[in-house]
C-alpha cells in the first residue's frame, strides 16, 4: 500500500464533494489502486460543520505549502489571483498540485505548465466537470490529429437555452429560475457572457491543437440576445440553439470561438440538454466521438479531482529546486513564442447563418432582401415568414443561408438594415459547422 497526503484549499462545494467522496470510497480506491489518500490539512477562510476526515484545519492557505506532510495541494478556492499564487507557491515548494480552476489555467497555463513543472500540475476538473476530456486529450487520444472540437461547456447556458425551448419562456424568466435552483450565480455574468466557456475552450485548444493559452484572443459572445422566438424558428428549420465552444483546424489557421449556434437536430450534440456538458471531437484516427456527462456539481467535479490525485500520486516524483524550475519555464516560454498555431481573426472564418429580419408586411419586401443577399453571393437554404403579432403590420423574415465569410455577412446585414422596410435590429446566429 502506498500513501499520498493531501492538503485541500477551500471548503466550498467541490471541496466538500471531495471530502464526501473520499470518506465514502477511500477503501474502494485503495483496493483498485493500492493508494491510500489521506487528507492531512484543510485550509479555508472559515471553518464549517463538515467531516474533515481527521485533517487539521487552518485559515491560512500558506499552511498548505509549509506543512511538510502535504504531498499534493488540491486548490479549490476559485477566483484568480490568490489561487494562482497558491499554485505557484506549492509548485515552487516541490509539491504536486491538483486544481479545478479554469480561470487560472486559461490565464497562466503557459507558465504554470511549462517544463518539468507541468507534470506536477493536474486540472481535469477545470473543464467539463466529471467528463474525462483532459485525460482523453492528453492520453487516450494523444496519437490523433484533431480536425474539429465542438463543446457544450457551460451548464448554466445549456440549462437556460433548454428551458427557454421547452417552456417557451423569456431569457429573464429563465435566468431567475436558474438562480433560484442554484444553476446560476447571483452575478451570472461569467456564465451568460461566455467567459467561463472561453476559459475552458482556451484549455481545450492547448490540449487538442497545441495552441498557447491565450484566453484574450478567443472570440466570445454570450446568450443574452437569444429570444424564445429564435429558438422556435430554429426548431422549425430543424435545429436547436446551443452555446458552443468551437475549435477548428483550417488550412489558414485555427478557429477559436465561443457563441450561440444552430445545431442540427440529427446530431448527438443537439440532444445534450439541461446542465449537462458535452464535447464532440473529430479525430483523424479515432474518428468522431461525443463525450457527455455532468459538467459541474460537488461530487461530479470531485470525481475528476480525485482521479487527478491518483494520477499524480502514481507519477514519478519530479521534484526539483525552484531555480531549475524557473529555468525550465523560461526555456519553454522562449520556445513557445515561435507560435506554431495561429488563431484566425473572426473576419476570416466562414459560417452558415440564421437571420431574423423584422420587416413591414408589404409586397415586394422579400424580393428586396433576396436581391441584397444575391448581390453578396449568399445563397438562401431555407426561408420562413412569421407574423410578429396578430394585427401588427410587421413580419419576421427568417432565413437560413449557405456558408459565407463572416466579413461578408456583417456587410450584408448592414445593407439589409438600411432598407426602409426593415423596422428593427437584424438578429444573426451562426450555424454550427458539420464538416
Ligand atoms: N461548483 C462546481 O460545480 C464546479 C465545477 C467545476 C469546477 N469548479 C471550480 O472549482 C473551484 C471551486 O468551486 P466551488 O464551487 O467549490 O467554489 P465555492 O463553493 O465558492 O468554494 C470556495 C471555497 O474557498 C474558500 N475561499 C475562497 N477564497 C479564499 C481565500 N482567499 N482564502 C481561503 N479560502 C478561500 C471559500 O470560503 P467561504 O466558505 O468562506 O466562502 C469556500 O469555502 C473553482 O475554481 C470553480 O471554478 C467548480
CATH class term of the largest domain: Alpha Beta
Q: Domain count, please report it.
A: 3
* End-to-end C-alpha gap: 49 Å
Count of DSSP-assigned helices: 14
Q: Which structural class do you get from the secondary structure elements?
A: alpha/beta
Morphology: elongated
- Rounded mean pLDDT score: 92
- Distinct small molecules: NADP nicotinamide-adenine-dinucleotide phosphate
Low-confidence blocks of residues? 316-338
Query: Which range best describes the helical content: under 10%, 10-25%, 25-40%, 40-55%, 55-70% or over 70%?
Result: 25-40%
Overview of the molecule:
The strands form 3 sheets. Strands 7, 8, 9, 10, 11, 12, 14, 15, 16 and 18 form a 10-stranded mixed sheet that branches. Strands 3-2-1-4-5-6 form a 6-stranded parallel sheet, with helices on both faces. A two-stranded antiparallel ribbon has the order 13-17. The chain is elongated and about 80 Å long. It contains 14 helices and 18 strands. It has 3 domains: 167 residues, NAD(P)-binding Rossmann-like Domain (Rossmann fold), CATH 3.40.50.720; 160 residues, Dihydrodipicolinate Reductase, domain 2 (2-Layer Sandwich), CATH 3.30.360.10; 84 residues, Alpha-Beta Plaits (2-Layer Sandwich). By secondary structure, the protein is an alpha/beta fold. The chain binds NADP nicotinamide-adenine-dinucleotide phosphate. The site of NADP nicotinamide-adenine-dinucleotide phosphate has 23 residues, from helix 1.
